[in-house]
Amino acid sequence: MHLELNIGSGKVPFDKTELPDSHFLVNVDCSYSVKSCSSIAEIENHLMKAVSNVKPFTEGFVFFCSSKAVDFLDSFRFKVDKITCSRYMEHVPLKDLISFIYLLHNSCKKDGILEILVPDHRYYAETLIGLDKVLPVGEINKDFLNRLLEITTEFCNEPYDPHGSIWTENLAKYYLEFEGYWQIKEITSVGRNSTYLDYRPYLKIIASRP
User: Is residue 204 predicted with pLDDT exceeding 70?
Assistant: First the structure.
């Protein structure tokens, strides 16, 4: 059995036909309606049946759970093969980041994979410095305002869903490897050609659990 968690999965639909046989995916997001989701206990019950072959699954299966990430990781009893956090980690406050990274570590099997997608804040910092040198005077410059809005969004986001931590390639290595919880395998720049990522630069970070 192969088990994956998608933390902060949001409203992006997932086609379960993409899952290979005996693969299970648990999407976790507090924005989901509780009525249309499975509880942690229900998900664990399904997985126990799959493990014991009481209810064998011949195709991939997708669960949705309405829960805060911390609460789910604290309660879920199964170790997983992979955890995905797409556009989520930047929302974790810096003061809570290392403890959250430990929760991810503790929820994953040895040699399991963590895949993270976060804004490339170094790009935005360098863009801001350049923008600060060419402030428009006495005119409304739409290109300037759009770029300033993009920078502000990636550093701060909206008040109801703020960004709490800053990510660069070096900071990602510091956060994930500081306590030895994860070992980074690859960091790549993505997003500039992606409509899904609004053509904005992101860092895709792949790490493994030692």
Answer: yes
> What are the two backbone dihedrals, phi and then psi, of residue 164, each rounded to the nearest 5 degrees?
-115, -5
Give every CB contact of residue 112 below 8 A, 6+ residues apart in sequence.
Answer: 79, 80, 81, 82, 83, 208, 209
Q: What is the DSSP letter of 13?
A: -
65 contacts 32 by C-beta, under 8 angstroms: yes
Cβ atoms of 24 and 2 closer than 8 Å: yes
Spatial separation of the C-alpha atoms in residues 111 and 205, rounded to whole Å: 15
- The set of residues, in sequence order, having a beta carbon less than 8 Å from that of 127 and lying 6+ positions away, is 147, 151
Strands 183-190 and 202-208: antiparallel
The yes-or-no verdict on residue 55 having pLDDT over 70 is: no
- Mean pLDDT across the stretch 16-20? 61
Q: Where are the alpha helices (DSSP H) in 52-198?
A: 69-75, 94-106, 121-132, 142-156, 169-177
Tokens 């994930």 -> residue: 176
What is the overall mean pLDDT for the chain? 90
CATH superfamily, domain at 2-120+161-208: Vaccinia Virus protein VP39 (3.40.50.150)
Confidence of residue 105 (pLDDT cuts 50, 70, 90): very high
